[in-house]
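In response to reviewer comment 3 from the previous cycle, which asked for concrete evidence that the modeling workflow produces usable outputs, we include below a single protein chain processed end to end. The sequence was submitted unchanged, and the resulting structure tokens are shown without manual editing.
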Amino acid sequence: MKIVIPGGTGQVGAIMNRALTAAGHEVVVLTRRPRREGEVAWDGETPGPWTAEIDGSDVVINLAGRTVSCRYTEVNLKAMMDSRVRSTRVVGEAIAAAARPPRVWLQMSTATVYSHRFDAPNDEETGLLGGTEPGVPDYWAYSVEIATRWERAQEQAETPHTRKVALRSAMVMSPDREGVFDVLSWLARLGLGGPVAGGGQYVSWIHDRDFVRAVQFLVDRDDLAGPVNLAAPAPLPQRAFMRALRSAWGVPTGLPATRWMAELGAVVLGSDTELLLKSRRVVPGRLLDAGFDFEHPEWPDAAVDLVRRRRGDRAAAGRAARRPLPALSRSPRRGA
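The workflow returned the following structure tokens.
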């Protein structure tokens, strides 16, 4: 199949590109700065020659959007909003104008859309959307607004022949450099991976292999559309999450950090404390109901696997590579 990935040069895009290419699919990445074979130029805002890649493709997986790994200044928040909404709109326009539109459009979203809460998990049916929680920074509501407008841009696209799925993704954990697992592992190995602000806030996550498998599952399931949570079924408090990560690395202790220490650390890392302090207790209700089986449902097991891969355990990597990914169905093209 031909799969087009707008914004596919980031961490998640690299994960998807590797897996789908290895499975024998033709992958085209739309990027502002094409450098490799299979990459095509686009600006993420206006139609252009790149739309020819959409026409006749089987699947579009839109991952475009400014990274959230930055300080949440007014300028950066606006850039996050504009890059997500505009790229989604122009992808929708390209699909609507295609003579042979793709059969499914998977649009990246985020688990940040849900409320900061500790009392109960958020699934797609009963989960509470955020933005009105008391006692949290005002700009957290803007992050929720980014997510809701991001999804709305896909919903409003006139693509009657293309099924649409919004991927409300938790943090994707992979051993790749400069990803979130890399940063958290660096803190853990330095002995800094203890509880932050008490550590009671929930961490939602998904193993990179399960992320790929879930995407493939959603491509094949014609009965699934709309928002779908991509998160492991067992979110856990930050203190337990970091304890399991330290254990995987063989680090016995981790220094705790207060809220102000987290603020200082975020400045040093060029990030924001929302990523550390917001309680994202998200569960994959629709995936589980549809019969999706997670390979890594629990974080301690997932952390051990990721650490082994990061350390370059060739035997473990070879075993993982030999486990086949599920094949995407090769449905005949409409009009073919």
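The chain has twelve helices and eleven strands. We consider this sufficient to address the reviewer's concern, and the full set will be provided in the supplementary archive.
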